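tool=predict chain=A
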Amino acid sequence: MRELSAEARLHLYARNLSRKTSVGLQTAALYSAFVVIAAIVFGTLSVHPF
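tool=predict ok
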């Protein structure tokens, strides 16, 4: 099996890092959406409009 050049290794590393960052951002966005929904639900439960 041939060795990868330094440029090819750097490209693979950058692509892998980009993928990890993307997954992390998507996970953070998903959890943030749940937090916002929970804040709205629990916030409206504590208000008595009538």
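The mean pLDDT is 84. Residues 31 and 43 are 18 Å apart (CA to CA).
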